[in-house]
Write a structure and sequence with these properties.
seven-stranded mixed beta sheet, alpha+beta, Aminopeptidase, 5 helices
């Protein structure tokens, strides 16, 4: 039996999603950012209310990677008007892929990326794209390994800190 499985979220998973979102974001970025900016982002951008609005958007989907009955990683994708940049109806945005620190190295990012590719095929998408913080070298390396190329930049606000995300895309 495979220890890990991918599960599409339902509204009943909202509390677990909030906990996992906050924990993985903090684990990923706390060392490179001011504490106050991190707390502001966690409280405002990953609040239950904000996640509920995202969850209710019919052009967004969330998935967990489950380790038996425990969520250990998650994915958020957007298409259509839910995309954070206008990329058209044939594109899918990976807005978030996060893995708990203790589960990194188990290829869960690859598992979630493969899920996106499967969804893209079903939706007849021709592009998968994302924004990744310019200082997140580990993630940039991950996406380049899967064939993503840089095509632009956009701003990302973390608390009071205006940061730059590199936009990357994969043509299917």
């Amino acid at each position: 039996m495979n220890r890990f499985s991918v599960k599409k979220l339902t509204i009943s998973s909202l509390y677990e999603l909030q906990l996992l979102s906050r924990r993985t974001f903090y684990e990923t970025f706390w060392m490179e950012n001011k504490h106050a900016d991190m707390m502001d982002y966690l409280e405002n951008e990953l609040s239950a209310e904000k996640l509920l609005l995202e969850f209710k958007n019919t052009e967004s989907e969330f998935y967990f990677v489950m380790h038996f009955d425990k969520p250990v990683a998650y994915l958020k994708i957007n298409y259509g008007d839910a995309q954070t940049e206008p990329m058209g109806s044939k594109a899918i945005e990976i807005e978030r892929i996060y893995v708990l620190y203790d589960y990194q190295g188990f290829h869960l990012g690859r598992l979630l990326f493969n899920k996106v590719v499967d969804i893209a095929k079903v939706r007849n998408a021709d592009t998968i794209w994302l924004g990744v913080w310019e200082l997140n070298h580990k993630a940039i390396y991950f996406y380049k390994k899967y064939g993503f190329i840089e095509f632009g930049k956009h701003n990302f606000k973390l608390g009071s800190d205006l940061q730059t995300d590199i936009l990357m895309k994969l043509q299917l």
